[in-house]
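Before the break, one more example. Copy the sequence into your notebook; we will annotate it together after we see the structure.
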Amino acid sequence: MPIYYKTADEIARMRVSADLLGRAHGEVAKHVKPGVSTKRLDQIAFEYIADHKAIPSFLNYSGFPASLCISVNEVVVHGIPSQYILREGDIISIDCGVLFNGYHADSAYTYPVGEVKPEVQALLDATKASLYEGIAKATYGNRIGDVSAAIQTFVEKRGYSVVRELVGHGIGRNLHESPEVPNFGKPRKGEKLRNGLVLAIEPMVNLGSRAIVQEADGWTIRTMDKKPSAHYEHTVAILNGKPEILTTFKYIEEALGLAVLSSTKTA
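Here is what the structure looks like once it is written out:
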C-alpha cells in the first residue's frame, strides 16, 4: 500500500482530532476504579465522543462491537467491553480512536486499578517509557527499524518480551495506513522516515513470554502464559525533521492526580 504523507493543514486537523481523543481518554480515566464494569467505561467514551460531534474509530471497524478496546490483565489488545467488574489489583489497557474533521487519531494507556503488585507496576512503567524511546527515534532520515529497535532494546534489557504479531501503523484519513511499525527490529532497516509521515507507535509488552493466542470471539488477544501485558500508544507526526506527539496523556494524568510527565510536543 502507498504511504500518504500529510500536509501541514492535514496535520493541524489531526491535532484537533488528537486533542479530542485525549479528552475522551481523560473522561474515561475518571471512572477507572474497582467496581466499575468495562462496558460502562465504553459507554462513557461513546457518549463523550458523540457529544463532541466525532465518531469512535473502532466502533463497527471490521465488525468490532465497541468504541474502546479494553484489555484486562493478560489480555494484550482488542478486548471487548463486557459486564466484567474491575477489581483491585487488575490492570486495564484502554485503546481508543477518534474520527473528527475527516482524520483519525489513536492512542492507548494502561492503568493500574488500585494497588497492583510491584512487578506489574514496573511492567507498566517500562512499557510507557519504551514508547518514548521509540518516538525519540522518529526523526527525518531515520528508518522504521530505528524506532522498532529502540523499543525492543529498552524492553528486553529489563527482562520483558515484545509482542511481534501486532504492530503500530500509519494513520490519517484511514485508521490503519502504511507503513507498519513493529516493536522489534534492526536499526537502519525499513521505510525511511520523512516529514509529513504520521504514525501510531504502540509497544505491547508482556511480563512473561511473547507468545500470544486469539480467543474464540475472534478479537481478544491474550498472552499464552496468562501473565500480564501492557500497551501504550501515541499518534506522532514527523515535522521539521522531528517527532511531534499529536495525542496526549495530559488529561488522563490530570484525572488520575498524577504529575503530567508526557510532553505533547517533541519527544
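DSSP finds five helices and 15 strands in the chain. The chain has a mean pLDDT of 96. Try to locate both features in your own notes.
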